[in-house]
Each structure stands twice: as C-alpha cells, then as structure tokens.
Write a structure and sequence with these properties.
The protein is of the alpha+beta class. It has helices spanning 3-6, 15-24, 106-115, 117-143, 146-161, 170-177, 181-193, 209-216, and strands spanning 26-30, 35-37, 45-50, 53-58, 64-70, 75-76, 92-95, 99-104, 165-166, 197-200, 203-206. It folds into two domains: 3-142, Jelly Rolls; 144-216, Arc Repressor Mutant, subunit A, CATH 1.10.10. The chain has a four-stranded antiparallel beta sheet with strand order 1-8-3-6. Strands 2-7-4-5 form a four-stranded antiparallel beta sheet. Strands 9-11-10 form a three-stranded antiparallel beta sheet. The longest helix has 27 residues, at 117-143. The radius of gyration is 19 Å and the shape is elongated.
Length: 217
C-alpha cells in the first residue's frame, strides 16, 4: 500500500498539490516505544501505514491516560498542532508497536489547507472526530466505574491483539485508564476470583470473554 492509496483525499487534490505533497512526505520506520511527539515540536501530520500509536495526556503528577489509539490508515492531526492555533493542550504520541508512518511536514499541510477546500474540510472533520473521542472518554471517566472501564479495555485489547492471552503489565493498564497500578491490580484480582481472567507475571489471560463483555456495558 502506498501513500496515495492511504491518503483519503488524494483524488481531490490538484496535480500540482499532489506533486508538492509527494516531494515533501517523509517515510519513517518507528521502533516500539519511540516517542513521536510530546507537544514541544511540531512534527507534522502522521499517516500510519502499519502499526499502532497511542495518544495520551500526562498530569502534573505524572499520571497518564490514553485518549485514543491510531491504527493502519489512521491520520494523527494533533502532532501538527502548530498549524491549529486553537489547540491549548499538550498531547503525547508514542509507538505501541513497530510502525511505518508517512510524515507530512506542517508547513506543506498548512499550505494545502489554505488553498484546498477539500483539505480544509477533511481536516475539520478529522479534528471533530478526535474531539468526539476525547469527549466520549471524559464521559466514561465521569459516569462509568473502574471495573466497567477495565473490562472494556481488556475486551478492546483482545480485539487489537487478536488473542485472549494479553502480554501486558498492570502498570501499563493503569496508564491507559488514568488510574493507579495498585487499584488496577486489586480489580484484576477480583476478576480472577470471579473466573473471568487468569493472572500470571506480565500476562492477563481472558478466561470468560463473554462475561467480560457483559461487565463492560
């Protein structure tokens, strides 16, 4: 799959714009655990060819919470926050798996936004979609108990990893959920006592996925 096939509005660009973006894009192979963006530099738009990125925020106390994941074909807009003056919060983006991405330089994309209604509209739609995800997360934190959020996270992980044997630590789960590791450990032990999961070092094995799904509702 090449860039033209992945970029959703490629066919709506003029030949001149297509040529400009083709010359400007940079291909990068990203190792798992690499920090791609921490709010300090304007990296540019990231278009994920393959892999998995995680967007999260960090509290003053150092606690993390995942905002959303980016998978094959997704575009990360907030890594080019310098082209959007209205953004007032800092987001971090890290590679959760070995990934391949294309980077569109911010000045190139900003120029496209200013000269292409299609690009401007697409950018606004993308931004609205991401903010909707953030608002959904806030609602979950405010109105859902941790056991339900933890169950939903584990269900999502089994889908992403395509396995019921999850190689993940309690601390990583806590970072995703914006909770303390001790609290997550206590809840996972409760799940284990209920026969929903089996815990071993560095692994959470899902024993009853259906029950987990019911709990997440």
């Amino acid at each position: 799959m090449n860039f033209k096939e992945c970029f959703p509005i490629w066919d709506k660009l003029t030949p001149e714009q297509q040529n400009k973006i083709s010359k400007a894009i940079v291909y990068r192979h990203i190792e798992k655990g690499t920090m791609l963006y921490n709010g300090l530099d304007c990296t540019g738009l990231l278009l994920i060819k393959t892999g998995q990125l995680r967007a999260y925020i960090l509290s003053d106390e150092g606690r993390e919470i995942t905002l959303y994941r980016l998978l094959d074909g997704d575009i990360c807009l907030f890594s080019a926050s310098c082209i959007m003056n209205s953004l007032q919060f800092t987001i971090n983006i890290v590679s959760e798996k070995n990934s391949e991405v294309w980077v569109i330089p911010p000045d190139v994309y900003k120029n496209l936004m200013e000269n292409s209604a299609a690009v401007a509209n697409y950018t606004n739609e993308l931004m609205a979609s991401r903010f909707s995800e953030v608002m959904w997360l806030i609602e979950q934190i405010m109105w859902k108990s941790l056991d339900k959020r933890l169950a939903a996270f584990l269900v999502e992980e089994t889908s992403l990893e395509n396995t019921t044997s999850l190689k993940i630590t309690h601390e990583i789960i806590a970072n995703h959920l914006g909770s303390a590791r001790e609290v997550v450990t206590r809840m996972l032990r409760y799940f284990q006592n209920e026969g929903i999961v089996k815990l071993t070092r560095g692994t959470v094995e899902i024993l009853d996925l259906q029950k987990l799904k019911q709990l997440s509702i």
